[in-house]
Amino acid sequence: MHRQSKSYLIVGQGIAGSLLAWHLMKAGHSVTIVDQHHHESSSMISAGIINPITGQRLAMTPQFDVFLAQSRKTYSQISAELRIDLFVPKPIIRVLRSAEELARCYDLNTTSAAKPYIAGIHKPGHYGVGIHDPYGTLTIAQGGYLQTQLLLTSLKKYFLAKGMLIDECLAYSDLILTNNRVQWKSLTFDAVIFCEGFKANKNLWFKNLPYSFAKGEMLKIEFESASLPDAILCQQQWCLPTQKGTYLAGSTYDRANINTIATPEGQSTILKGLNDFIPSKVRVIEAYAAVRPVMLDQKPVVGMHPAIPTVGIFNGFASKGILWAPYYAEMFARTTLPPLIR
């Protein structure tokens, strides 16, 4: 049975809004996006890392294979249609901090979920003198990073060329809502979906959700003397080689100062963490800050308002937006006005 096409107004063109718009459009729906530059979006300064084994406890991301399959499919489709290369495959080298972490690696290598993503558990010095690794390293396979700025700027041009994107700041007071229609100015839609990132805490319909936003800072740097493998390197901090010979490095996690201002304290935290496993002098080229749209339970919030069926939200993807958003966007697009997932 053919599903009826609907018209959607999407507020926000970060990773979440862009991928939701893409999947809705490809599912045959009509889409209009409203966004004014999205200059404070965490998406624009995201490193875009996809890593199956993360965190201080070296935890396997639940259902990683499912999310990875959909993200590869989505980014491959966008890359082919826009004629750009979005995803950069890179091994991920986790520099171990203790004998306990080393033991955890060997335990992981016995599990069916993690084993396909473990490329090697190496003794100290395996990657040369550029890395300080007294407990050795874990090399993680099938990782890499998405060029998020390239994705967003390319999709912006694509949406503009199709007449889908309006460069404007939407005022909530301009929306007229009923149980079956949404009117914004002279335009009428079946639903409005808010993809506003951390600005959702001001949203009239979703401001009381359990948000737990976290500010993150990131640096663009150059190492003065380090000889490093062509890989994403991580410990408490991470760094990845860009295609321009520099590195991106991060990050911090600050729940007390929810703003987009880069600070000396954030820079110091990142550089100190890097120096623990890359003992080289660093030149800082640029500093960035953004606010991650995190929910208290670390899960995204996706679907329609329980009392107003024409108002929806697609948010809360935190630092896993690059991995999670394609899956949830595809799910949203094939489910007519899905109920709120919490």
Number of strands: 22
Residue-averaged pLDDT, rounded?
A: 93
Shape-level CATH architecture of the largest domain: 3-Layer(bba) Sandwich
With helices defined by DSSP (H or I, 4 residues minimum), what is the helix count? 6
Q: Number of domains in the coordinates?
A: 2
State the fourth-level CATH superfamily of the largest domain.
FAD/NAD(P)-binding domain
At the fold tier of CATH, the topology name of the largest domain is: FAD/NAD(P)-binding domain
List its salient traits.
D-Amino Acid Oxidase, Chain A, domain 2, eight-stranded mixed sheet, FAD/NAD(P)-binding domain, single chain, 6 helices, 342 residues, 2 domains, alpha+beta
In short:
By secondary structure, the protein is of the alpha+beta class. It is built from six helices and 22 strands.
Describe the structure.
The chain is α+β, with helices and mostly antiparallel strands and 342 residues long. It folds into two domains: 7-46 and 149-210 and 297-334, 3-Layer(bba) Sandwich (FAD/NAD(P)-binding domain), CATH 3.50.50.60; 88-143 and 212-292, D-Amino Acid Oxidase, subunit A, domain 2 (D-Amino Acid Oxidase, Chain A, domain 2, 2-Layer Sandwich). It is 24% helix and 27% strand. It has six helices and 22 strands. The protein has helices at 15-26, 64-82, 99-108, 148-161, 264-275, 321-334, and strands at 7-11, 30-34, 49-50, 53-54, 59-60, 87-89, 92-95, 118-122, 137-140, 144-146, 165-166, 175-177, 182-184, 187-189, 191-194, 214-223, 232-234, 238-241, 247-250, 282-292, 301-304, 311-315. The strands form five sheets. The protein has an eight-stranded mixed sheet, with helices on both faces. Strands 11-2-1-15-22-21 form a six-stranded mixed sheet. A three-stranded antiparallel sheet has the order 3-10-6, with helices on one face. β12 (175-177) and β13 form a beta hairpin. α1 (15-26) packs parallel to α6 (321-334) and α2 (64-82) crosses α6 (321-334). The longest helix is centred in the N-terminal third of the chain and has 19 residues, at 64-82. The mean pLDDT is 93.
